């Protein structure tokens, strides 16, 4: 229930707005105590981690990746059940959670316990509010955008709206139940998306590797592909397409051309921008209308960043240096686009990756020399027509589920803000 304006007053804090007349404004240090208990001598070896989606979880559930000093237990902070854990850097994007575990966390985390007559769950929901996170951003220090840090002192000196203890509990109970239901629907939608993506992958694999009909088959010569239709051939990619050919289309360098950073290349689709060459960085990859571009670096390759370039300004574009360009000449372009998305080819490419961490790249030599299935020309078009329709339908279903998730997540954020600031009464 939305509270009538007659029951409200100005909180005197821009990001909070109006609050119920009987609520108080308090600094967080009046509600929370910081726990700075070092894990020395070692109290626990149960390392905990913090994620934006799952909250506080055992580090083992993340595969123990990314922790460079996980054996230095003495340097860690002790966490107890029903304490809030906040990442001093990622708190700005909601990396805060309520722990249900006893364990220890990295020294860069803050740990807070509730004072008497304070519901720790209510405080945890307060940390989830985007307006509060934006407020904290004003106190962030650091050089790089992704390494901004907020001090615990600045966090605890923020003023917040606080109802009495009974109403804190009622709000926390309501949000626990309601957010749990929302999260269940979101989880079901995400599971459906995964199923659609698996189905889409299997449909592409079947069509480009084994054809649409159950006719006579023969050995492809590739153990991973297995049998192919009798009329098909196996050809190297370099014999049916040019690899990283460069731009051959004439264009005016003084006018705007296409500009395609990696985030403009999605799973089968491209959303090109435009810019002047003089405003772009050097070392970009050039391509033109009709070219297939595919990411060569992890995780973009695994995420399916591949598309046919279309509707480019002046018919040409410059994009990320982490793109391969494939220009077909003796094979249906869209058949090639779908072939490059089959799971056998992708797994083979992944096995060729070299480099470290997030900079691993697919071997260009492998891609150029990879054997691909080659149906007769008319059959290539039949397969393309079939996949265009099937993929469009599955992409539509995926987009519907993604839209539902976005709407639910936005509603959840709005609901938390309205309830935790008292604009909506829990009844």
Structure description:
With 427 residues, this protein is an alpha+beta fold. Helices cover 31% and strands 21% of the residues. It has eight helices and 24 strands. It has helices at residues 120-127, 130-137, 152-156, 165-210, 333-339, 343-351, 364-369, 377-420; strands at residues 8-10, 18-20, 24-27, 32-34, 48-51, 55-58, 77-79, 83-87, 96-99, 103-105, 109-114, 159-162, 217-219, 227-229, 233-236, 241-243, 257-260, 273-275, 285-288, 292-295, 306-308, 316-319, 323-328, 371-374. Strands 4-11-8-9 form a four-stranded antiparallel β-sheet, covered by helices on one side. Helix 4 (165-210) packs antiparallel against helix 8 (377-420). The longest helix is centred in the middle third of the chain and has 46 residues, at 165-210. Mean pLDDT is 92; it is low at 63-69.
Strand fraction: 15-25%
Terminal Cα span: 7 Å
Query: Roughly how many Å is the radius of gyration?
Result: 27 Å
**Cα shape:** elongated
Estimated helix fraction: 25-40%
Low-confidence stretches: 63-69
Average pLDDT number: 92
Helical element count?
8
Q: How many β-strand runs? A: 24
Oligomer: single chain
Structural class: alpha+beta
- Tell me the major beta sheet: 4 strands, antiparallel
Side by side, the strands of the main sheet go: 4-11-8-9
Overview features:
single chain; 427 residues; alpha+beta; 4-stranded antiparallel β-sheet
